[in-house]
Amino acid sequence: MGVSPLFLHHDTEQGVSVRVDVAADSAVSLLTVSGPWDDQLRRSTSVTLRRCFTEHPDALIVDLSRLFDPRSESVPTWTTARSVAAALQPPVQLALCVPPDLPLADRMTTADVGHEDLEVDLQDAKGCEKGVREGCEG
């Protein structure tokens, strides 16, 4: 199991941000979650995920590299996001980006998140984005 660096808790501002990248044939949203996982961040993340799914992008990349979640309490949020993305018509491709040295990565590989949705880093997920734009399956 990985160990979360302590500096993440102190140096990472809490929040959720979304960037939408639109091309002529696709839309990809990048959701970045940062800071310590608590009730406020959970609520903010859940609301933002609902808004992203309402917009129905072709793909949603969730960057969790700046999330401080040493007890992996956010896993239910990501399993729910996976279910919602898969249930949409057409389904939204979902890539969850978690550095492999964080406890969350270990927990998500054993949870019902699905290895096809779990990316090691943001660059791998950007490959998913490129595949969406080129009309490739994921």
Q: Over all CA atoms, what is the radius of gyration?
A: 14 Å
Order of helices and strands: HEEHEHEHEH
- The fourth-level CATH homologous superfamily is STAS domain
Strand content: 25-35%
Describe what this molecule looks like in 3D:
- The protein is of the alpha/beta class and 138 residues long.
- The protein has one domain: Transcription Regulator spoIIAA (2-Layer Sandwich).
- It has a five-stranded mixed sheet, sandwiched between helices.
- Helix 2 runs parallel beside helix 3.
- It is globular and about 40 Å long.
- The two termini are 28 Å apart.
- The N terminus and C terminus are likely disordered.
Task: Give the arrangement of secondary structure elements.
Elements: H1 7-11, E1 15-22, E2 27-36, H2 39-55, E3 59-68, H3 75-87, E4 93-97, H4 103-110, E5 118-119, H5 122-133
Parallel strand pairs: 2-3, 3-4, 4-5
Antiparallel strand pairs: 1-2
Helix pairs in contact: 2-3
